[in-house]
Amino acid sequence: MTNELHGRKVAILATDGVERVELEQPLGALLGAGAQAELLSLHTGEINARQMDIDPAGTFTVDKKVADARVGDYDALLLPGGTMNPDQLRTDPDAVAFVREFVETGKPVATICHGPWILAEAGVLRGRRLTSWPSIRTDLRNAGAEVVDEEVVIDGQLISSRGPQDLPAFCKAIIERFAAALQPA
């Protein structure tokens, strides 16, 4: 275990339909780097994960409702994908407001697959460069982003990847970028 993120707290925003591997692997990398992580969601209890959007893939315990979370309590934000997860999040005013406020702080935000949908809804993509799952790229372009097809894209505070095939590079990038961004000035 390393300690690049020791003493740092990362919010993970997800709800039912999250792609299990896109939450589980980054969470493991964050914990392995010494971070604390809290799962924020639209409801308390547990959220249902999926595999390839179709097959049930277990549950994750929610730490706090996003409506009760404060952006100032976190050092970084992770937005995993799955089709249903961000599609539900982007219709929830509390989730959208949390993401918008988080981006406005300048703290690092990592997203993968369909995760950027909520960034589009929050209106924070104009002039940003990122990648995503192919089926939402038009939505991201319509929100003002420059969308590219690369394994990992870093644009300032924003770290993005296309999908599960990119998880090794994505996990490495989020640890490096979160650690660099969180160093004292």
From TrEMBL:
Residues in DJ-1/PfpI domain copies: 8-176
- Name the Pfam families on file: DJ-1_PfpI
Q: Please name the PROSITE patterns in this protein's record.
A: PEPTIDASE_C56_PFPI
CDD domains for this protein: GATase1_PfpI_like
Indicate whether Transferase appears among the record's keywords.
Answer: yes
Q: Which UniProt keywords apply?
A: Glutamine amidotransferase, Transferase
- Similarity-based family: Belongs to the peptidase C56 family.
Q: Which PANTHER family match?
A: DJ-1 PROTEIN, PROTEINASE
What protein am I looking at? Type 1 glutamine amidotransferase
Query: Upper lineage ranks?
Result: Bacteria, Bacillati, Actinomycetota, Actinomycetes, Kitasatosporales
